[in-house]
Amino acid sequence: MAEIVDPEHADDEIVIQMSPWGEFFVWVARHVERLRREHRIVGHLSVSPSATSGPSSSVATKSSSAFTVRLPLRLSLEETALLLFRRIVVAIDSVRPVCSLNPPSPRTLARFDSALALHYAESMEIHKQRKRQRMLSYYGEILKGRKKRKAREAAKAGSSCSTDVGGSVQKDLYDENGVRLSKKRLKKLQRRKRRKVASVMESASDYLEEDCLDEQEDEINEPLPTLEELMGTTSTDDEKMTKYIPLHRPRPTPQEWRRDGEHTTLPVPDAARDSIEKVALWLLEISSKSQLDRNKNVIVRCRVFDDLWSRGFYITCSASKMGGDFLVYQGDPLFYHASHIVMVNPPQAPIFLSRLSASLRIANSVRKALVLATTSTDGDHGVAYTSLYWMGFHAPSGDVQHV
């Protein structure tokens, strides 16, 4: 199946970066889009750190669709080997850890600090614009809230005045000579105080009504506050605003901030371009993941992945795989459900009945066909498939072994 290449990005080479711990990433958004649209490589986008900062139990209960995904795109070894073998990517950008490099010069640090300060100022302006848009959409509610707050403050002032007048009754339990008043005398004084308080409250209510009318007239006459005045009432302290301003975004390191020896371009050796097995072995060697007991399994998975990809399927191997090694999709996983669960097994390696039964039950419960894939031993680099499903279950259209 011929791949569609956009002529607009024909000269824009896709860059795969290898981290010091042997993981493969794509940092440029347009490269991620090209891999998905033109080459059917899905990968796995990174999850926001805030989504995984809580307890593991709370994270496990959340749906994966609720997480915020972002760059970089993580590629598996099978996907990376395919891209190198098919000449879609020509080299690997290997990154050394910063702790093994020489410290930057003071001049470089000063330039970096000035660039970071400029980025912070630009991000602050963006944050203010977003805040302005939010306040503009709630402008009417903000004005109503300001009126209610003024009314509450006026009510509190009136209640405090009344409590001061009424509280003086409790103090007149003794006369001027310090002798306690009798009950009859005390009741007479309390009635006199209540009449005085009633007259005071009546005059105060009349005054408050007149004051409220004056305030309403003033509110009608005075102009409405602008958004700048409303924003000026909120806190603009830099320390409080820092948590809302992103200081940096996930992106590749600019050329001017790269240290000497930090990035090394590793092209694929000519001797390793003959087959995907040699490309996979070369990747295992440079990523320090080479282990004799698992190299054979990795090579078989790379061959099966390459064969399925050449048949026009979308294959994912970095997300939830439902007990298998790959999930096969008839189209883009954004629009299609997986149709097959692929379980790769090296040739002449035993398949335990317990694992086969468990995998088949999982595939049947999610209404997918289980595919056993292995490579041939006669040296023709072929791949053999066997589709399994329970009796009475209709196999998905586009069965792998009949494509």
Automatic annotation (TrEMBL):
The GO molecular function terms of this record are: nucleic acid binding; tRNA-intron lyase activity
**Is this entry keyworded Cell wall biogenesis/degradation?**
no
One GO cellular component term: nucleus
Under CDD domains, the record lists: tRNA-intron_lyase_C (cd22363)
**Pfam families with a match to the protein in the record:** tRNA_int_endo (PF01974), TSEN34_N (PF26577)
- The secretion signal range is none
Catalytic activity, EC? 4.6.1.16
GO biological processes: tRNA-type intron splice site recognition and cleavage
Domain of life of the source:
Eukaryota
Q: Where is the TSEN34 N-terminal domain?
A: 16-93
**Keywords linked to the UniProt accession:** Lyase, tRNA processing
Q: Which reaction does it catalyse?
A: pretRNA = a 3'-half-tRNA molecule with a 5'-OH end + a 5'-half-tRNA molecule with a 2',3'-cyclic phosphate end + an intron with a 2',3'-cyclic phosphate and a 5'-hydroxyl terminus
Cross-referenced InterPro entries: tRNA_endonuc-like_dom_sf, tRNA_intron_Endo_cat-like_sf, tRNA_intron_Endonuc_cat-like, TSEN34_N
- Boundaries of every tRNA intron endonuclease catalytic domain copy: 300-380
Annotated region (Disordered) at 246-268
State the family named in the UniProt similarity comment for this chain: Belongs to the tRNA-intron endonuclease family.
Q: What is this protein called?
A: tRNA-intron lyase
Q: Which organism is it from?
A: Echinococcus multilocularis
